[in-house]
Structures are given as structure tokens and as C-alpha cells.
UniProtKB/TrEMBL annotation, chain A:
GO biological process, one term: protein maturation
Domain of life: Bacteria
Name under which the protein is recorded: HypC/HybG/HupF family hydrogenase formation chaperone
Transmembrane feature ranges: none
Coiled-coil segments on the chain, per record: none
NCBIfam families referenced in this protein's UniProt entry, alphabetically: hypC_hupF
Stored Pfam families: HupF_HypC
Entry-linked InterPro entries: Hydgase_assmbl_chp_CS, Hydrogenase_HupF/HypC
GO molecular function, one term: carbon dioxide binding
Annotated source species: Candidatus Desulfaltia bathyphila
UniProtKB/TrEMBL annotation, chain B:
Protein name: Hydrogenase formation protein HypD
NCBIfam families from the UniProt entry: hypD
Source organism per UniProt: Candidatus Desulfaltia bathyphila
Coiled-coil region(s): none
Similarity comment: family membership: Belongs to the HypD family.
Gene Ontology biological process terms from the UniProt entry: protein maturation
Molecular-function GO term, any one: 4 iron, 4 sulfur cluster binding
Keyword Protease: no
Iron listed as a keyword: yes
Length: 79, 363
């Protein structure tokens, strides 16, 4: 039941957002979010946006994952 | 660089590196429980089981909402659908769950008005268009779903819709973790905690549980590296004997969770003791509609009769939901019970463990 895919808000009107899910437009309620803006990526479940993805945290996570991967590669190379 | 929050976490290089790390660290045999049905599916689909060393095995937990719904409730849903002026609305995955003598799908084939909706807004719309009918939404789900249903009740109240009702069979996750730890013979070394339930409740909601049992717990997302990284953290914690509660999905989950959703849920629902299939009564684990909103409560406002409930004979869903068995250990698995002709709910729901095994597991 959980649609894990984050979607981008492309329009907001009266607490309803239009999101882009892989090129398909869908309506989602923004009633459960504090401050959604156009351009935000949100996690949507059963027609409601539940969370706004924190872009800076996401970048940090990716950076950490990449660094960890590089470290493992280096360890492997060093034997 | 724009990030789309999907592809980046499917990078095979990153996955491979995490798997290497796990292989290096893992010595002991460990049993990790993925509580959430969506994790069960993602772990199978992404082929993670095959990549990991044999020391690691997975148990699927009670996190498939349809699967843990008590047979009595399924029968009540069917009873409601049989009431003359009722239109039942539901998410699709409930349709085929076998009740004691029927299913919603069979009832629909028999002419009952049962409609699959994508969100509760669709159910509200149906209520608006059918003022002479009672429109009931079947509320099944965890903390991810419950606030959306609560919001629909508040919307119905604001719009003065008096023919919209909810049957709330919602459940919450932390009390179930506690119940699992108390179940006899259950052996779990670490928990992969549900990502989207945690979006709502925040990691803080697990603090009492973690404080009590000091068992490794990591919240995980759903893409391959979102799952592998938490597994790696769990294995390291188990090997080093240092259990921690970690947020392994920080782009979506915060310590406090979604306060607005928590408040709406709290306004509309109260926690009560309810039965989970296979587990029994878990104290304060169910969400029922508060008195203040009782005019929207289908259980209070609509009279219906349901058949006397009996659990499906021979079905081991209960043991599967607590990690005591895996599907191939059920005598009916693949023989009498298949996704086309399911005996128990674990074979029906796309998140059900039996359905996941049937689809992805050879043997
Ligand atoms: S295989 Fe079918 S009968 Fe056996 S536990 Fe799973 S759902 Fe129940």
C-alpha cells in the first residue's frame, strides 16, 4: 500500500497539489503537510503527501554512501 | 545536479560496496525481521537475499495491514456490504481476502455495491454524489494510512456530509513490536523498521521499545541501498554487541515525525486493545474513532450482521506474521493456496509474505 516513490509538486491550489509521477499527473492533498511549495519532492500515500524530502539531508546521505563505497573499494584494492 | 531521490539509491556500485562490507563484518548467524510488508517485497524484488552471505536470514513481520486484520473484521466488512443502502469503499487489496463464508470480491459479483478507491477523497466524492446511500470506507492500515482517513473524517465534518462513515480497523506498529518480543519461541536479532510508518511517527516513537529490549533497530527506506545500508548497520551492531536505534532513512524520516499528521490522528482516534491475526490481543494497538466523531463511525451507526468467524483451516498466517514459520513450511503453500485461489490473507495482499515467496522464491 505504500507508494515509496517521491514525486515533485508542479502546482498547488487550495491545499491540493498536482504531482508528477514519472510523467503522469496526479492530484494529492497537502492537508497533512505544514509548508509545501512547488518544486518540493514529497512522499505520497493514498492521495496524501506525508513528507517533504529534505534535499540537503538527501545529498548528505548520498555523499556518505559514495564515500563508504569508495572506502570499501580501497580496502579491497589494498587486500 | 538535481536529485530525484530514486535512481541514486539504485546505484549498483553502492549496493555492491555495502554488500562487500556486510560480508566482511558478518560472522554470526542473524535473524533480521523486516516489519513492513513493503520491505518484504522490496527485498525479494531487488534480489538482496541472493547477494547477502548465508549468515543473514530474514523474517517477515506483522507489517502487512491486510494480513493482520482479524477474521472477525473481514467478516464484518462483508456484513456491512450486504446492507441494502450501503456502498462500501475500500483500497483494492482487501477485495480478495477470504472471510469465513465469502469475500468482498464475491459479494460484488453477487451485486453488492463495493467500490475500489485510490484515496479517501474518492470515497467522500461518492458520498456526495449518493446522498440517499450510506457510504462506508473500510479503514485498514497503519500510521501511514490512519492520518489520511482521519483527515477525511474531518473534511466530512466540515462539509456536513452525514452519509460518510469509516469502519476503523487501523493499527499502530510500536505495540506490535513489543508483543513480538514477548511471543514464545520468537527469535529476532534485529529489526528493520518501517520507513513510511516512521515518516509519520518519527524515530522517537520507538524509544520506549528500544529502551525496554535494547535490540538493534534501524529505520529503512525502500530502494536497494536504503535497505542494504540498514542491514549493514544492524550486522555491525550485532557483531559488536552495541545495540542502537538508528534512522537509516533520514531524507524521509525525522526524530519527531510529521506533527500535523500525528495531531489529526490523535484528534480523531483513540488507542484501544485490538486483535491482530495470529498474534491475539495487543494492548493499545488499535485506533478507533473517538466519541466526538462517532456520527462517522460505521460500527456505531450502521446495523449489520456478520457470520460467525472462523479462521481459514490449516492456514499458518499467524506463525508467518510472527516469524515462527516461513511460507514453504505451511502445508497448503503452493498446493491448496495460491495467489489465484488464496486460503489466507498472507497469500492475497501484494505485501503478504506468502504472496512474495510465491512470486520470487524458488522451492
Ligand atoms: S500459504 Fe496460504 S494457507 Fe499457508 S500460511 Fe500462507 S496464506 Fe495461509
Amino acid at each position: 500500500m505504500c507508494l515509496a516513490i517521491p514525486s515533485k509538486i508542479i502546482k498547488i491550489e487550495n491545499n491540493m497539489g498536482t504531482i508528477d509521477v514519472d510523467g503522469v499527473k496526479r492530484e494529492t492533498s497537502l492537508l497533512l503537510l505544514e509548508d509545501a511549495k512547488v518544486g518540493d519532492y514529497v512522499i505520497v500515500h493514498a492521495g496524501f503527501a506525508l513528507h517533504k524530502i529534505d534535499e540537503s539531508v538527501a545529498r548528505e546521505t548520498l555523499q556518505l554512501l559514495k564515500e563508504a563505497a569508495a572506502l570499501v573499494d580501497k580496502e579491497n584494492a589494498d587486500g | 545536479m538535481t536529485i530525484k531521490h530514486i535512481e541514486e539509491y539504485r546505484d549498483p556500485e553502492i549496493s555492491r560496496a555495502i554488500v562487500d562490507r556486510i560480508k566482511k563484518v558478518s560472522r554470526r548467524k542473524v535473524r533480521l525481521m523486516e516489519v513492513c510488508g513493503t520491505h518484504t517485497m522490496s527485498i525479494f524484488r531487488s534480489g538482496i537475499r541472493a547477494l547477502l552471505p548465508e549468515t543473514i536470514s530474514f523474517l517477515s513481520g506483522p507489517g502487512c495491514p491486510v494480513c493482520v486484520t482479524d477474521q472477525k473484521e473481514i467478516d464484518a466488512f462483508i456484513g456491512l456490504a450486504r446492507v441494502d443502502d450501503v456502498i462500501v469503499t475500500t483500497f483494492g487489496d482487501l477485495m480478495r481476502v477470504p472471510g469465513t463464508d465469502s469475500s468482498l470480491q464475491k459479494e460484488r459479483a453477487n451485486g453488492m455495491d463495493i467500490r475500489i478507491v485510490y484515496s479517501t477523497f474518492d470515497a467522500l466524492e461518492i458520498a456526495r454524489k449518493n446522498p440517499d446511500k450510506k457510504v462506508v470506507f473500510l479503514g485498514v492500515g497503519f500510521e501511514t494510512t490512519a492520518p489520511t482517513i482521519a483527515a477525511s473524517i474531518i473534511s466530512a465534518k466540515e462539509a456536513k456530509l452525514d452519509n460518510f462513515f469509516v469502519f476503523s480497523a487501523h493499527k499502530i506498529v510500536p505495540p506490535a513490536l513489543d508483543a513480538l518480543m514477548q511471543t514464545k519461541d520468537v527469535k529476532i536479532d534485529g529489526f528493520i523498521l518501517p520507513g513510511h510508518v516512521s515518516v509519520i511517527i518519527g524515530t522517537k516513537a520507538y524509544l520506549p521499545f528500544f529502551g525496554k529490549y535494547k535490540i538493534p533497530c534501524v529505520v529503512a527506506g525502500f530502494e536497494p541501498s536504503d535497505i542494504l545500508q540498514p542491514i549493514s548497520i544492524l550486522v555491525e551492531q550485532i557483531e559488536s554487541g552495541n545495540p542502537e536505534l538508528i534512522n537509516g532513512y533520514p531524507r524521509a524520516v525525522t526524530f519527531d515525525g510529521n506533527g500535523k499528521a500525528q495531531k489529526i490522528m490523535e484528534d480523531v482516534f483513540e488507542t484501544v486493545d485490538v486483535v491482530w491475526r495470529g498474534i491475539g490481543v495487543i494492548p493499545k494497538s488499535g485506533l478507533k474513532i473517538r466519541k466526538r466523531f462517532s456520527s462517522f463511525d460505521a460500527e456505531k451507526m450502521i446495523e449489520f450482521s456478520a457470520p460467525e468467524s472462523k479462521d481459514p483451516k490449516g492456514c499458518a498466517c499467524g506463525e508467518i506474521l510472527t516469524g515462527l514459520k516461513i511460507p514453504p513450511e505451511c502445508p497448503l503453500y503452493k498446493k491448496l493456496c495460491t495467489p489465484i485461489d488464496p486460503v489466507g490473507p498472507c497469500m492475497v495482499s501484494s505485501e503478504g509474505t506468502c504472496a512474495a515467496y510465491y512470486r520470487y522464491h524458488n522451492g
